[in-house]
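User: Can you model how S-adenosylmethionine sits in this protein?
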Amino acid sequence: MGFKQKLSALALKFIHMTIRKPKKIKIFGKTFILLPNVFSPRGTLTSSFLARNLGVKEGDYVLDLGTGCGIQAVFAAEKAKKVVATDINPQAVKCAKINAKINDVAEKVDIRCGNLFDPVKNEKFDLIIFSPPYLPGTPKNLLEHAWFCGEKYEIIKNFFMHVKNHLKPNGRIRMVYSTIADVNFLFDILKKNRFKWFVITSMKTPMERIFILEIKHKN
Ligand SMILES: C[S@@+](CC[C@H](N)C(=O)[O-])C[C@H]1O[C@@H](n2cnc3c(N)ncnc32)[C@H](O)[C@@H]1O
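Assistant: Here's the modeled complex, given as structure tokens:
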């Protein structure tokens, strides 16, 4: 891990250490309950940046993979016909269920626990939302799955090896990524798996540039 990546992992650890009991937060006018050991959209930048740039179209069938507290699923449900939200962390699943309920979208949002595409084996979506862990490293507990993606970016690699099977024709992916991670690795994986992409928007911070990508398969 490089210096900036180490610093970022430390900052994330610190932000989450301070969340010892359920906490109420507000994001763009909506209330969310944050449980301990779930990725926090407060104190971090990627969640709200992605939530503002989801690109959901009226009637879309959406997958929010790695839902965390359910923030993307809740915002996507404003326009989507249905949202399936998944996470490997059972505490995140519990948290996302609470947030779907308090935001009155529980009937539209189906929340499931599991690794990558395991919980949606034969399902295809118009839009797949992914705010992945992108720091190289091995998670040592459930929470660390939120930022460590494996020593060799295995989560990112596996996601793009399998995602095509879960996209409807002309289906799209909205994903957040950062220059703090290995950007060339991501673009190589996209090329190898025959995806095209463009940058929807980006944001500069003192440490990194965070960007939102729209990704489609070349077919
Ligand atoms: C950076 S957090 C984003 C959370 C949320 N989407 C947001 O925008 O705040 C990444 C999420 O992906 C989940 N995750 C990591 N690896 C996963 C995997 N293999 N399968 C499913 N979810 C995973 C983590 O538990 C975490 O909740």
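A couple of observations from the model: The longest helix spans residues 3-17. The chain has one domain: 3-217.
User: Helpful, thanks.
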